[in-house]
Specification:
elongated, mainly alpha, about 120 residues
Length: about 120
Amino acid sequence: MLGEPSAPQLVESVALFLEKVALPKLEGHAAFHGRVALNVLAIIQRELTDGPAAAEAERARLKDLIGHDGDLAFLRSALSAEIRAGAVDETTPGLLEHLEKTAIDRVRIEQPNYGSLKRAGG
């Protein structure tokens, strides 16, 4: 039985079209914008495939860090409020580790070829 294509499959199809069919025919400014579009599709692909696990890992760390439960937006806001209030700072156990892991996950999705990513454990 054939199902509908998934979002990652659709993104991959458009990226392949751009890379193999459209970009070879483009020149100058249009070729530049085509490469930008291809990079955007690659970010979307990684966000679709890796983003949910990264978000859940961040949510779990935040829940442990601040002792509240909720969705990711609420927990991020709660951590920010605790930092502003001075209840959480760089000496809070787990904070720096959480921030580092969150940053590495974002860079892995948005810029996986970033030079320092491998040194940072990504």
